[in-house]
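Q: Structure tokens for this one, please.
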Amino acid sequence: MWKKVLYLAAAAAISLSGCSSKSEPTTSKKTQTVDQNKENQSDHGKSEEKEEYAYHFPLTGIGTNEEPGKRAVAVMINNFPAARPQSGLQKADVTYELLAEGDITRFLSIFQSELPEKVGPVRSARDYFIELAKGYDSLYIAHGYSPEALKMLKSGYIDNINGIQYDGTLFKRASFRKAPHNSYITFANIEKGADKLGYDMNQLPDPLPFMTGKEADKLTGDPAKEVMITYSHGNAFHVMYEYDKAKKKYMRYSDGELTADLDTKEPVQLDNIFIVETDHKVVDNKGRRDINLTSGGNAYLLQKGMVKKVQWQNVDGRILPYENGEPLKFVQGKTWINFVPASPGMDNMVSFKNE
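A: Here is the predicted structure, written as tokens:
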């Protein structure tokens, strides 16, 4: 940037000007990988916006001056009413919510930028959750598995630590809840298990696409202060997101109760709500499902108190928003992705309220 320096001589009224340049810092290859502002700015934005951070967290886009060199950890988290409130959800960068058996949803929470002390209750693996975790090259944490999931884990498809093998050692049972709603693991034990099993925990995930702050300020859409997703006929699995204008965040509710951490009471606060519609099929007498993660389809994207009807695509294992065939970006921050069955479909399961 050029700086003008003016020297004024009152008697002679002579003006002299000079300029000096300040060179930009050298950017390493890894910095370029995680620097979302540089990757995602328009040419106009590049000329106007000053980069404030050396790095950006790859799954939130939030700036940091410390190199975010951690592998993503994906944890299966129980959402049965007896497992609420959960521990650690508020620290997740990305959380997927999908149906398991019956009307019961389960979470896959992906941690990278922030790590809670402990997380849980941890629940059993399903094949489609494994596929989603694989999209971030995550270390996959679960307690138990379906037959199809067990085949995938035994094949070495994804690095994983499972409570079946480490119940009572890496995984601990809480006395105040009953099995299978009482299995917890600390991130210290996740690191201990990863070291024992020889897993590399320094593999930074590829970044998600994020907007700059100026791009986010220009977002358009239909106003939607609240959105309700009805997963069941009862209220236990009714999910509501409410936009808090003061905080510029979405708050999440299950069965009317704020989703917050069991110990700290810190609420889940979100910047992107992505609701995708896809085919679900029950495949056995236990009610286990096959969920289509690859076809793409209709979706809703909620950001900054507004909603757009968009499409979703699977890009290298990640579920991402598109509009008219063009990729969309996320607002910097945390993201929650809900899957709903194509039958009965989004029009019957998702409702919006503006006030």
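A few notes: The longest strand covers residues 306-315. Residues 1-49 have pLDDT under 50 and may be disordered.
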